[in-house]
Design brief:
Largest sheet: 7 strands, parallel
Number of strands: 13
Structural class: alpha/beta
Low-confidence stretches: none
Distance between the termini: 12 Å
Shape: elongated
Order of helices and strands: EHEEHEHEHEHEHEHEHEHEHEHEHHH
Number of helices: 14
Radius of gyration: 21 Å
Length: 368
């Protein structure tokens, strides 16, 4: 089977992380050949790309900003050359597949990585995409119960197939001891609880709520610190955070070894307005870093409140503060139980081997 994966870029986003992992898992399977198209190309700083298996054939198309018509011709040429059995698109790459669907023989699968209402496509693209979904010319994949329900409301059909995201087993890096020393130096006491947030700074990730809550708790004397990892995508929000944050809230920007921080933190926080199925939450599960999150998107399907994490009652400062305080009051035996449940959740639902098998099963079903 020949699989052509298409994504706009390989940067530090969750969808990009997932595509790299999925390609790497596919290539280990018998009789599977994997090709990857990055519309914008790959830059040295995009470290996910360095993890790609060398047996994966990569095409870089150097797309220009906006809708680049030349990409249509470049993609069509690649498809004619490779003759893939399956074309699997992600994010806004679907815009360049739609005009080609009637001219290619490959089966097209598209994974929706967020709430379908928030997918990065315009109204015209959505109109044609609905028609192609209706006639099953493109098969949509949703990644959570919330995503599936939203898909039905947006596209008025039930042609979608639900497949959870996954991650391979993660390990500590060679910098683990350095990270441990760094975190210990940031703690106020040996009992300081370490909270970790991993996400690009943006409006949808709702970091101002996160910072406001931790400012309040720290000012009340709670023995806690908050470490924030992620690119400074939004300068206005970043500047506001830097202006108001307590000194025990630390912004690290992008780091190449966030897994080390997950292993060394007590809790993982996301306060987003909208989420699909966060890869960082899957990583938190498998490192035993207990999630304390707002009930947005697929998060509320992944976290079983008080079992494998804590879910705020609403997306509000008051509700999230209550969830954090509940975590701080947990007895040690409950913390250990939650950590074990996190690991069990990952193994049962979110390992990349399971995810890849579900995709390959789907691909095979549409080739017969």
């Amino acid at each position: 089977m020949k699989i052509l994966e298409i994504i706009p870029d390989i940067t530090d986003g969750g969808a990009q992380r997932f595509v790299v992992d999925l390609c790497n898992e596919f290539i280990t399977r018998e009789n599977v050949k994997v090709y990857l198209v990055s519309l914008y190309g790959i830059k040295e700083k995009h470290y996910f790309a360095k993890e790609l298996n060398k047996n994966i054939i990569v095409f870089q198309l150097d797309k220009k900003p906006g809708f680049d018509k030349t990409i249509l011709f470049k993609l069509y040429k690649i498809i004619k050359e490779v003759k893939p059995d399956i074309i699997h698109s992600h994010l806004s790459a679907i815009k360049y597949i739609i005009p080609l669907v009637l001219f290619i023989k490959s089966k097209v699968i598209h994974t929706i990585h967020t709430n379908p209402k928030r997918e990065p496509i315009d109204k015209i693209t959505r109109f044609f995409l609905k028609k192609l979904y209706d006639y099953k010319k493109i098969i949509p994949i949703t990644i959570s119960k919330d995503s599936s329900e939203s898909y039905g409301l947006v596209y008025k059909n039930n042609n979608n197939i639900e497949i959870f995201n996954g991650r391979p087993t993660v390990n500590r890096s060679e910098k683990f001891n350095d990270v441990m020393k760094k975190i210990n130096s940031l703690k106020k006491t040996k009992n300081t609880k370490v909270f970790l947030h991993i996400a690009r700074i943006s409006k949808v990730k709702n970091q101002l709520l996160l910072v406001n809550v931790f400012n309040k708790l720290i000012n009340e004397g709670k023995d806690i610190i908050l470490i924030m990892i992620g690119s400074f995508n939004n300068k206005e929000i970043t500047d506001k955070i830097l202006e108001i944050k307590n000194k025990n809230i630390i912004l690290l920007g992008t780091v190449k070894n966030p897994i080390d921080y997950l292993f060394l933190s007590d809790a993982f926080c996301l306060t987003s307005f909208v989420e699909g199925m966060p890869i960082t939450l899957i990583e938190a599960f498998q490192t035993g870093c207990i999630p304390v999150c707002t009930p947005s998107g697929g998060i509320k399907n992944m976290i079983k409140n008080d079992i494998n994490g804590l879910l705020a009652e609403a997306i509000s400062e008051k509700a999230f503060e209550k969830a954090v305080n509940k975590f701080l009051s947990l007895p040690k035996i409950k913390v250990k139980s939650m950590q074990e449940n996190c690991l069990a959740t990952y193994r049962e639902y979110y390992h990349i081997t399971y995810t890849a098998s579900e995709y390959l099963k789907l691909f095979n079903n549409h080739l017969t």
